[in-house]
């Protein structure tokens, strides 16, 4: 969700009563602080800030510092992958909550040891980069400890979430569904492709590894994934990254944002298996309201028409 999950989307999701996430990705300290401040100015609600330790590298310490210095309220740090212990300790000491996304039960135990308030078990159903090689239900079956386990991967409707809760999850992170919302910074053609896609139109590949090597990723199929052999890493597009205009070689991990120009269909259009349920682009608030209505209907059906209780826990992913 790198450049897709910006302040506008994060604030809109939080205002809807879910938990929006703004992604720092490879932002420097000043840019990280600006993203936090911008999001805070757009909503009075709690929101999450996402970091990716293995991509941020030496920037991570400064990104966490920018969050701590800029936050005007208790927030939630959403870490994609295990967070180094010193950074986890800084976040917790400052009174913020910590959510850590993992791809194995073993890493979930490590996250618990870091003091995480919750862990996210990411299955291979998810769009974007993968932290493991198992599906959600297999991961849930292997995880039987505190803290609460959320899931990420193919949760697009309220009925999907009910299925996940019945399998043992406490809530879900949703990414692909929010790519097509009005506040998303995704390129229009990327959104349109998601709205046309079915489950057979996604594939797990390693062909978008420039800038983020070593992680398989689920994307929409296209010329790059379907070529019998890897295509040359020639220039295919231009995009805006961290305030500057940057070239995009074929095979780059960069997702197509609204500023991208060129052969966008050959860029990394991340998509989870839940894309098959997406057919309408809506504002984030309308999507969350629809999600809640679907959840209520599915729960009522399960209970034989009895009134349902509290709504589900749902947030945007900040990968």
Automatic annotation (TrEMBL):
Residues passing through the membrane, by range: none
Keyword line: Flavoprotein, FMN, Monooxygenase, Oxidoreductase
Molecular function via GO: nitronate monooxygenase activity
Entries under InterPro entries matching the protein: Aldolase_TIM, NMO
Recorded coiled-coil stretches: none
SUPFAM superfamilies (alphabetical): Inosine monophosphate dehydrogenase (IMPDH)
Protein name: Nitronate monooxygenase
